[in-house]
UniProtKB/TrEMBL annotation:
PANTHER family: 30S RIBOSOMAL PROTEIN S16, SMALL RIBOSOMAL SUBUNIT PROTEIN BS16M. It comes from Cloeon dipterum. It is found in: Mitochondrion. GO terms for molecular function: structural constituent of ribosome. SUPFAM superfamilies: Ribosomal protein S16. It comes from the Eukaryota. GO terms for biological process: mitochondrial translation. GO terms for cellular component: mitochondrial inner membrane; mitochondrial small ribosomal subunit. Its main location: mitochondrion. Keywords: Mitochondrion, Ribonucleoprotein, Ribosomal protein. This is Small ribosomal subunit protein bS16m. InterPro entries: Ribosomal_bS16 (IPR000307), Ribosomal_bS16_dom_sf (IPR023803).
Length: 99
């Protein structure tokens, strides 16, 4: 969703074997990755419905698992640690260049 240079994502339950443009079963959240005026990235979840679908055995995609881990609903995803590690290395390299 969203438009050019302004992404916006719906977190949905969908059949794994269908096309991405097919109708979804249910929308269980949304994610706005661009920071707002307070430098916050907004995420909204319907945890009751997520719990319902997890109990039915759905598979989570990695980005959704990362968001649920950061929200504290699931354990933190390993890719989150790798992203933080890469960001620290990049920040250290940038600080060395400035000095």
């Amino acid at each position: 969703m969203g438009c050019a240079n302004r992404p916006f994502f719906h977190i949905v339950v969908a059949e794994q074997r269908t096309d991405q443009h097919m109708p979804v079963i249910e929308q269980v959240g949304s994610y706005d990755p661009l920071p707002n005026e307070r430098n916050q990235k907004l995420v909204a979840f319907n945890f009751e419905r997520i719990q319902h679908w997890l109990a039915r055995g759905v598979n989570l995609t990695d980005p959704v698992a990362e968001l649920l881990g950061l929200s504290g609903y699931l354990p933190i995803h390993p890719r989150t640690y790798m992203t933080a590690w890469r960001n620290r290395i990049k920040a250290n390299e940038e600080s060395k260049v400035k000095n």
